[in-house]
Amino acid sequence: MAITLDITGVLQAAAFWVSNKGGSNGYKLYLYFYIMLTVLSVVLGNDPVILSGTAFLVYYTNASGLEPISWLISEFAAANTASMVLFVGNPTNVVICEGFRVNNAAFTAYTILPFLACSVFCFVALAFQFRDQKYVPRRLNVQGDLDVRSVLRDPIGAWVGSILLGSCLITIIVVSFVHVDVWIISLPFAMAKFFYDIGWDHYRHVKKTQMAGKRSDDSSIEAEAQDVMLRQLQLHVPPPVDKHSEPEPEHGAQQTLDIHHLHRELSAVSASQTRVNTRNNTAETNKTYVNDSEAAAERVKTASPEKQLDDLEKLGLSQRLNQVYRERQHRFADHFPTFYTALPRLPFALVPFAFSQFILIEALAHQGWIEIFANWLVRASNRQIYPTIWLVGVLGVILCNISGTNIGATILLTKIVRAADMPESSSRAAAIALAVASNIGAVSFTFSASLAGLLWNQILEQKDIYIKQRTFAFWNTLPLVVMTGVGLGVVCAEMAVLYPPSRSRGL
């Protein structure tokens, strides 16, 4: 539901609206973008926000002549911090709720205060370390406002998707008090959104109506959205006159793209495919083909009927099958653009990855290592609340970098805490500390600390922005240390209220 909502253009529209509100004030715009990304990540989760937010910030900083590292690090920190609020915001939250039997609504109640504290102090840390004018300038050279509706490709779909997603989240939280499995609630809403998308796409195809900004050629929805976004940014932000005044990146991104490169990039449907431009003798000399067989099939389509018959006879079986496949693919994508665009973006790879993590942890348990780790935890914490919070929280942040992303770290620590046979108060404290650590641990020293980090780095490389591992760790160190101290401190305060010393001794 979040992915199809993103396809309607609602995230890009929100970014345009925030950009207009920020105007030419660089500090205000930096804060507004941080707030917007935080709010969207709370509702949609971090992955959809990173998918759309990263691309927008790349284009915006490039068009504005800004140093991108400060804006991209802020986006990454905001998206991952906000994912701790709802149990569906991150797969690690689901593991914690199931492993510690935490009610879904109670999970949000426990994490809302640590989230607010982490989010506020994270921005303070970001503002401090990016206080130099070359990272966040005081004034921006902008003119006019961005057209918000130009990037909102499907207003009706945006409304329907927002209503369904909001209703689903509210229903899950309410029904969680009667202990109903999450999938039983979310599946009907997801199926309703699926059938709506299929029906709405079919209706528009029959009525010969297209998404706003949809061209009649073979361009994908994402390429067209980027094209519209780039045109708007070129009008909104004039190019800098004095090239010598642009700062050199320091501890930042190795940025090699320019506006013309971005414009060429928009015509590519997939960055993972190698395209070879093949020009024929027809008027359509600007089309891009993947290989020679596709070019031959295109020549068959554009030739006269007699010529088509001759060319078809010359084509081999594989070339004929490839031509039929390309035609069917184009028809399907034109008929159901939402489904065709959303399907490759679904996190199918998460299922075998998480499954493999569970297998590895079960192997450790079978060999007796979980019991050994649990005994170490008991000796170090003495089953007390506050030592447990800091041990589990700090270990969670560290293990995110070395345990196969935050998912592996969460599964491992959940098994260890459960094997330690903690009292109820300490077990609940460990669960909330782990929830905080597994989310802020993504804002860490390695890209592989989370799947979101790997996705973020992959998107940047596709846009020809290369951030080195040590640069990523350098700029994340201060926000991570601040959020770890503040977040776990708030968890301690919550546990002090929920489990006073006299009561905890009784438990």
What class would the helix/strand composition place it in?
mainly alpha
- The low-confidence parts are 241-297
CA-based shape: globular
Tell me the major beta sheet: 2 strands, antiparallel
The secondary-structure element order is HHHHHHHHHHEHHHHHHHHHHHEHH
Q: For the residues shown, what is the average pLDDT?
A: 79
Strand content: under 5%
Our measurement of the CA-to-CA distance between the termini, rounded to an integer number of angstroms, reads 42 Å
Using DSSP, what is the number of strands?
2
Question: Order of strands side by side in the largest beta sheet?
Answer: 1-2
Question: What's the helical proportion of residues?
Answer: 55-70%
Evaluate the radius of gyration.
25 Å
How many individual helices? 23
Secondary-structure blueprint of this entry?
Layout: H1 2-7, H2 10-22, H3 26-44, H4 46-64, H5 68-82, H6 91-100, H7 104-129, H8 155-175, H9 182-206, H10 221-236, E1 254-255, H11 259-265, H12 292-302, H13 305-314, H14 317-335, H15 337-342, H16 350-366, H17 369-381, H18 385-402, H19 405-419, H20 424-440, H21 451-462, E2 465-466, H22 469-498, H23 501-506
Antiparallel strand pairs: 1-2
